[in-house]
Every structure is written in C-alpha cells, then in structure tokens.
Write a structure and sequence with these properties.
By secondary structure, this protein is mainly α. The chain has one domain. Helices cover 75% and strands 0% of the residues. Helix 9 packs antiparallel against helix 18 and helix 11 runs antiparallel to helix 12. The longest helix is centred in the middle third of the chain and has 27 residues. It is globular and about 70 Å long.
Length: 430
C-alpha cells in the first residue's frame, strides 16, 4: 500500500491528546508535574485507544498491540534498560560515583572550579548514563564550592546541570541513547560518533563561558578527597567497550561483573549484598521499561487507526528534502519532550514517526537517532518543570528560574545541531 492509500485520521491521535491533557493538566493544577505518575496517564490513554475503531474486535486489538510490543527493537530496548540498571546499581554500590567525583576534584585546578564542575559532570553523566544521578552526586559539591568562594550558587549548579545533560544524550548506557538507537535501528557506536561531533562544539563554548565568568577566583578544599582508582575502572571499561563496538549486552554485563568484583575486593560491597545491589539498580529501571511497553501498545493502535500517517502527512507538507526532514525530526522531539517533561518517553513516543520520516527522506538512522536524542535533551535541560531542574533546585534551595540563566550547554547544543543540519553534508543511510 503506498502513502497515498494508507489510512490517515486525526481522530486516531486522541489517546495521545488525552495523555497530554491529563499529564500536563494535573501538573498545572497541582503545581507539580510529577504529582501524576506518567504510567497512570499512559494507561488512561491506552484505554481510550482500545475504545476507538469499533471495526476491530477486542481480540484483534490485543493482537495488534502484541505485535507492537513484540517488535525486536522494543524487546531489545527493554532488556538493555534492565542491564543498564544492573550496572548502575553495582557500580554505585562499589563506590564508583564517589571515587570518580573525588578524583576529578583532586586534579582540578581551583581557579577553574566552575568549568571543572561542568567537565566532571560530563564525565560522570557519560559514565553513569543518568543526568539525575549526576545532579545528585555533584550538587552537594557545587554547594560546597559556592560556600568557599564568591561563586554564586546558581552558576555552580548551572554548571552541574550542563554537565549532566551532556551525558544524558551521549552516554552508551543512558536510557535516552538506548531508546533513540533502538527506535531508529542503528548501531550505538555510530550514533555516539554522530552525536559527539555535534555536541563537542557546544561543550567547548560552554567551558569557555564558565572560565570567563569565574576567571581569577579560587577555592581550597578542606576535607580529604579520598578515592580508589580501581573503582573508576568499570566506567572506563563500559565507555571504551561501547566505543569499540562490542555488543551492548556484553559491555553492560562485563561492567556489572567487574563492579561487583572490585566492590567486594575493596570492601565496598559485602558478598551477601551483591545481588541486592544489582537488583536495586534493575528495579530502578522498571518505570521506564513498563512505560516503554505501554507506549508501544498505544503507538501500535494509533498507527493501525491512521494516526501516525496523519502526523507524517502533516509534517511532510512542510518538508523539502533531507534537511527539512531533519528539522522536522528535531522539532518533533523538542515538542513531545515539552509536553511530556521526560526525554526518554518523548523519544519512545516520537521514535516511530521519526523513523518513517527518515526512511522517506533518506536521513541515515544514526543521524535520526542523534537528532531525537539531542533535541529531546535540549528541551529536558531547559524546561523549568523537568525532573532535572526541579531536582537541582530542590537539592540547593534554589528555584528553577534561578538556575536557568546559566544553562548554556543545552542552548549551544541546539545551535550546534541546527548548524550541522544546515551546513553539513548528508549522511548515507546505514
């Protein structure tokens, strides 16, 4: 069936509209965008999707969503989420986060402390694969640096936020990276290389700005910064393994085993606690795994009813060539993230539409995945009701609006990506 004959219907998008009304509405009314669990809003949306299209029986709809959930990319993505959680739990219990932070501060020249917070945040977020974990680890240190110097607290926390968002869309074990790669069907190392070239200029400009803003100031660390270099090794192994193209499951499982061995050997993990540490990490990924499954169900029904085709036709009207397609994918990711306040959910929701656009307009999967991840992270790093800014504000008694003027990296990341779209030659598909 060609594009002209495919079923299209704006009405099929009602479940997504219902989700947005419930999720955003509750956030606005209650003043807390996390008062309504996303999974509850998605389950209501799924119920609405089931009530649509009376031409299909209930059993037929179950068959449709089963095929959607059973897609190879969805299953693989969910398994990677769980493996990434296991690694995160093990390496955190082994003391990898604390050692990495203290190592960075030990070698960091005090005169560039704020820029150093950004650099350390970049490394930790790439290693951990979580912006939230990076913020939790570095925010107390940023407060301490601010107290020991005349650096304003908002600029210190802004540097932490910027570093956290660097790895949020670049890390090999970030749930956003996993979602982008699997929905677009490309290799993780290819997406990393494509992504890194785009965000590197933004990171360099951000470092220069932070250095310029704080030049001439310094601080003295009064407490002992203890670290164990062996506890940093699992992060390095995972990063290097993923970069050289090892299977992501091999990389994550190897990192988990190595973390456990080092944790037990250094006394950070008791032998009897090994499995509970891994289990805690896996449990932490349950939410996004279940949400991904439910979203796959909704998308399958929306697609069957013509909703995906309707959006494609709508976007297609404003697209002229591959550059237009890339701008369309970027805009889609940014818009959905602004609506959902969760960049991983945004990628899972926008991924099927982005893949259709990329295939029609000859955009390579690695570039499509990169744009999805970058622009959903741009939105997530800037919206004042996102978990990252809310967390940073809560940990430091600031407001999101105090921190926002110093969020240079997400802004320059968007600018850099747009420049790459406009001026860089097209990637071949593959």
């Amino acid at each position: 069936m060609n594009a002209q004959n495919k079923k299209r219907s704006a009405w099929a998008l009602l479940p997504i509209g219902i989700f947005l009304v419930i999720f955003l509405g509750s956030g606005i009314i209650m003043g807390d965008f996390y008062a309504m669990p996303a999974i509850v809003a998605f389950l209501v949306a799924l119920l609405v999707a089931f009530l649509q299209n009376k031409n299909n029986s209930f059993d037929k709809k179950i068959e449709i969503i089963a095929k959607g959930v059973g897609d190879e990319n969805i299953i693989t993505m969910c398994l990677i989420f769980l493996c990434a959680g296991g690694f995160s739990g093990a390496v955190t219990a082994a003391g990898g986060v604390e050692s990495t932070v203290n190592l960075g501060l030990s070698v960091l020249p005090s005169g560039i402390a704020v820029a150093g917070l950004f650099v350390i945040g970049c490394f930790i977020s790439v290693s951990m694969g979580t912006s939230m974990g990076t913020i939790a680890a570095l925010a107390p240190i940023a407060v301490g640096i601010s107290e020991k110097t005349d650096y304003a607290l908002p600029i210190c926390i802004g540097a932490v936020m910027c570093g956290a968002m660097f790895g949020d869309n670049l890390s090999m074990i970030s749930d956003t990276t996993i979602a982008a790669v699997k929905t677009q069907g490309c290799n993780m190392k290819d997406k990393f290389k494509e992504n890194f070239l785009i965000v590197l200029p933004a990171a360099i400009v951000t470092i220069i700005i932070f250095v310029a803003l704080t030049l001439g100031n310094s601080y003295t660390v009064t407490e002992e910064l203890t670290y164990n270099i062996f506890r940093v090794i699992p992060y390095v192994v995972v990063l290097v393994g993923a970069l050289i193209g090892l299977n992501v499951f091999v990389v994550l499982i190897s990192g988990t085993v190595l973390s456990v061995v080092i944790g037990v050997a250094t006394g950070s993990i008791a032998v009897k606690e090994v499995f509970s540490c891994i289990g805690d990490g896996v449990t932490g990924m349950y939410d996004i795994t279940v949400i991904s499954i439910v979203v796959a169900c909704i998308v399958a029904l929306v697609k069957e009813n013509g909703g995906i085709q309707f959006v494609l036709d709508l976007i297609r009207r404003g697209i002229k060539g591959s550059r237009g397609a890339e701008i369309g994918i970027a805009s889609l990711a940014l818009f959905v993230d602004a609506c959902t306040a969760n960049n991983t959910v945004a990628i899972v929701m926008a991924g099927p539409i982005a893949k259709e656009i990329s295939e029609e307009f000859d955009v390579s999967p690695k570039r499509s995945a990169s744009l999805l991840d970058i622009f959903s992270s741009v939105g997530q790093g800037l919206i004042p009701y996102g978990a990252q800014l809310l967390s940073a504000a809560t940990l430091t008694s600031l407001t999101p609006f105090d921190i926002m003027p110093y969020l240079y990296y997400p802004v320059f990341m968007a600018i850099s990506a747009l420049i790459f779209i406009i001026f860089r030659k097209r990637s071949t598909r593959g």
